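>> received
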Amino acid sequence: MFRFADDFLACFQYRTDAEAFRESLGHRMEAFQLELAEEKTRHFEFGRYARANAYRNGGKPQEFTFLGMTFFCGKTRYGAFKVKRKTSRKKLQQSLERFTDWLRRFRNLLPTGDLLWQAKTRVQGHLNYYAITDNSESCQRYMHLTRRALFKWLNRRSQRKSYT
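>> returned
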């Protein structure tokens, strides 16, 4: 079981255990006049054999997003099953948009040194949350796109392309 505030994720080895938990959870929440959000509740196969079973049925293994991370079935370099994580596409896009909006607003208001320092702080804040095992590709992409946006907006301050 993994939880954060009012969100949680429950994992079970057997389908019957998951169904029993789902039923008892519904009764437990009713006792407190709460209800489960059906649009957020999902029940699917995930684990060591999910990839092989999905390919056998002609599909792809399912993945899910929890707390801004997309979880998917992967393998270690030795071929063993591993749950892998990457930054969800939606959260990456939102973070880039927030960075670009901030940059567009403050590029002419702050001295260049302060702007670069605050940009570094913002990127570091993103990496403090998302820089975990198996997520280096998304983090590299985020750093590349923020660096590109930073140079783009800094170079628009004059006709000379002074930042590369």
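>> The chain has three domains: 1-43, 49-87, 89-155.
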